């Protein structure tokens, strides 16, 4: 479960696009080449690739190498041997149908073939008589049929009723998807009040409908009309769409086109799902199978420190991260993408120990943290305080013998320092930069800098980093009035 969580936690949006794009490309190949020899070879190449991955995972080096070579040759064979078939498929489609058209294959039903054939015979003024039996056996009332057993097609039906064909005068019996008999003689109708323009075919069709529940189609050779005989009635049909609907009702087909479309949609949905699963398998195989290990040294960032406390000491300021991931991702890592952060919000005065784990490390998606060195970091913190201390001049050298320094005033004479409590508690005085007495011959002023021990403290006011020294120098020996040598 933990492995699965880590896997999905490192799943990137780029991986979603990668899988989705390649799944769609594979699905488009299926849509374009289904039913062709190219598609069968593609399936074979897919199976070879699968066995190659299995052999590789089992450590069968030679077998894996051989299958990999066969796969490469097979891919080349597709381009060379099937180039004409590939070109024919692509040329027959426009850009839209290649990229996103589903291209449903329309299946022509037997009733559609019959309807189209009948009206083509009508246009050519070619007489015809076709019978579609229902539940009753018509063999008891028909005679002299010639077995045919040919699959239904427009060419088949037109050739049966072509004038030069010896069997064109009789009726053709169609059962299911086959022409079962031709040159069949049907019983003539016994009705006396039929129109004079009804031919023998019309009377035979009507006669059969009077004795059975069969449906008969009559094409008039003289007038080119198409008529239907059923249940002792004979009436004309104007177009092939209406005829097809009547034939579907007769054979009990509600909506064959809708059923075929549903089946094809189901087939395409299954192909899309299989494409997605296959590409997911390929992606997992490559992303997990080509893992690379690397080590990166990253500086540690200390976050949310109490502003009144200072970090006085740490056992380390950087961490060594051992990372794993696919070779492409490892090579693309940028320094700013990897960060190690420690939260000091709960740190207390003194020594604190923090553990470095996945929660403290920020990594790019797809990269997994394997190990951290060191696993723990000790951080010492101290309270930051302010302290007022006097300023003292650091005199160097000495005045000439006849001179004496009688008065010294400092402005300012004290400064406030800020630092860690343990470091500045021993600071009692701040000295100025060395001031040489050798060059002083008279009273005056001098501006000098203060000496700071930056590792211990800082002066809180920047303007007080320089001190003004006002000094008075007098002669050591003064003459007494009235005294002579």
Describe this entry's structure for a reader.
By secondary structure, this protein is of the alpha+beta class. It has 4 domains: 2-104 and 258-288, no CATH class; 110-252, YojJ-like (1 (3-Layer(aba) Sandwich); 291-374, Beta Complex (RNA Polymerase Alpha Subunit, Chain A, domain 2); 384-475, YbbR-like domain (RNA Polymerase Alpha Subunit, Chain A, domain 2). It has 13 helices and 21 strands. It has helices at 2-9, 13-33, 37-57, 61-81, 83-91, 95-99, 110-123, 154-160, 200-211, 240-251, 256-289, 327-331, 421-424, and strands spanning 128-132, 146-151, 171-175, 178-184, 215-219, 226-230, 233-236, 291-303, 309-314, 318-326, 339-343, 350-355, 361-362, 368-373, 376-396, 403-411, 414-420, 430-436, 444-449, 457-459, 466-475. The strands form 4 sheets. The chain has a 7-stranded mixed β-sheet with strand order 2-4-3-1-5-6-7, sandwiched between helices. Strands 9, 12, 15, 17, 18 and 20 form a 6-stranded mixed β-sheet that branches. The chain has a 5-stranded mixed β-sheet with strand order 13-11-8-10-14. Strand 6 (226-230) and strand 7 form a beta hairpin.
